[in-house]
Design brief:
Length: 245
């Protein structure tokens, strides 16, 4: 079964009471085939592979300071993604952005909102979030723990992302993400820059074709890091207690 047929089967599975969605998918079928042919012909070889310290990582997106790679995730057909960019900001401003749950939906790609469930100082935070997924995928939700630590010598900050799906009861109408994790790495650089690495893996749960899950993950990393430089500007004067700039 090809990707388009899988997508149509997915519509029937998740939305059996909405036949008009299947009709819309059929209308898009031939347009998608044509665009796919044009894009595959136009892509240079560098879009499929790039020189990298680890040959397992393949370049998926390159735009100015932003590079996004992917690699197979052990034991899964869903890929792991790593985005690298930089922002002109203080470390404390970047942390203020990452910890502002109320503003999350304004810059994180397809965020449906986030809420802090619990916090232990600056070192550990539990957050509930909603993913505003595009049709035909149902919206997802996540419960994760963020563990923050800073090296006192280098001032490098690592924020580990740990999945905690059972911390909150399931929500009607949403699919709880069963497997999710990764990290943020923030490294101070010269002239007021901060190097940002965002590495993440996630199994969206439910019945989603692998190709669609991987495409959605790529768009999420790219979109989030594209929005980050502008988003962090609102925290230019902010300070975060416990963070050494």
């Amino acid at each position: 079964m090809g990707p388009t047929a899988l997508c149509e089967a997915h519509i029937c599975y998740e939305y059996p009471d909405r036949p008009y969605l299947l009709a819309a998918a059929w209308r898009r079928r031939w347009t998608s085939i044509l665009l796919g042919c044009l894009l595959s012909v136009g892509l240079p070889p560098a879009a499929h592979a790039a020189k990298n310290a680890d040959p397992a990582w393949l370049l998926r997106h390159s735009e100015g300071d932003l590079l996004v790679h992917s690699r197979p995730h052990a034991g899964s057909s869903i890929e792991e993604f790593r985005g690298v960019t930089r922002v002109r900001a203080k470390l404390s401003a970047v942390i203020a952005l990452l910890q502002d749950a109320d503003y999350n939906r304004h810059w994180v790609y397809r965020s449906g909102g986030a809420k802090v469930l619990a916090r232990e100082g600056i070192a550990r935070t539990w957050v509930y979030g909603v993913v505003d997924a595009p049709l035909p995928i149902r919206d997802r939700d996540t419960v994760v723990r963020f563990d923050l630590r800073q090296d006192p010598a280098t001032r490098v900050i690592i924020i580990d992302i740990l999945n905690q799906p059972n911390m909150r009861p399931p929500v009607d109408g949403l699919v709880r993400v069963p497997d999710f994790g990764g990290f943020w790495r923030l490294q101070p650089q010269a002239r007021g820059w901060v190097g940002v690495t965002y590495q993440v893996y996630g199994d969206s749960g439910g019945w989603v074709p692998t190709w669609l899950a991987n495409y959605a993950a790529l768009r999420s990393v790219v979109g989030t890091l594209q929005a980050m430089p502008a988003a962090v500007e609102r925290y230019a004067g902010a300070g975060t207690p416990g963070i050494a700039d």
